[in-house]
Amino acid sequence: MAATPLVQLAKHEDSRGRLVSVESLRDVPFAIARAYYILPAESAARGFHAHRTLEQLMICVSGSCRVILDDGETRSEWLLDRPDLGLMLEPMVWHEMHDLSEGSILLVLASARYDESDYIRDRGEFVREAAARAGR
Ligand code: TYD
After folding, report:
1. Active-site residue set
2. Helix H or strand E encompassing 128
3. Which amino acid residue places its CA nearest to atom 2 of ligand 1?
4. Ligand 1 in contact with 36 (CB < 6 A)?
5. Which end of the chain is more exposed for a tag (fewer CB within 10 A), N or C?
6. DSSP letter at 57?
7. Strand pairing of 17-21 and 6-8?
8. Which stretch of DSSP H or E encloses residue 58?
9. What is the spatial distance between Cα 128 and Cα 126, in angstroms, rounded to a whole number?
10. Is 65 exposed, middle or buried (CB count within 10 Å of its CB: 0-12, 13-18, 19+)?
């Protein structure tokens, strides 16, 4: 994992409110091919998977959530509670979203179109693949 997966996004604030922008290959290190957003049910945790090749940036545009990242060796926890803060989800990083506040909205920008074969949804399989890639 990179030293910090957090990305500070450009915000433009005036008397009319706030605007936050994200530019492909500038604010994120990949070309954006897809965007999706999650409107979670109260107290439901989501994620619990890793991707083999997909790069993503997650932004909690409204509300807050706690994200656990785990590369198979190191586990870290991040609080997303500002619309101008992004969290990079690198390939081969298991991620879990917890404590999504009521009415929260998670926007995710992704480097490729949806492809179920890129997912690793089984925790044991993830640990094995991560260890094999790292030569452990
Ligand atoms: P899933 O990845 O399981 O959600 P989460 O990461 O929050 O646990 O996706 C939920 C459903 O939505 C699943 O049936 C796949 C589908 N989906 C798409 O069709 N396109 C997409 O871009 C994404 C992210 C999911």
Report:
1. 49
2. helix 123-133
3. 47
4. yes
5. C
6. E
7. unpaired
8. strand 56-62
9. 5
10. buried
Sign of CA dihedral 125, 130, 134, 136: negative
- What number does the ligand 1 atom closest to the CA of 36 have? 22
For residue 12, how far is its CA from the centre of ligand 1 (angstroms)? 31
Specify the pTM.
Answer: 0.95
Cα(81)–Cα(42) distance, integer angstroms: 16
Return the DSSP state at 9: P
Each residue's pLDDT tens digit in the chain (136 positions)?
Answer: 677 999 999 999 999 999 999 999 999 999 999 999 999 887 789 999 999 999 999 999 999 999 999 999 999 999 999 999 999 999 999 999 999 999 999 999 999 999 999 999 999 999 999 999 988 8
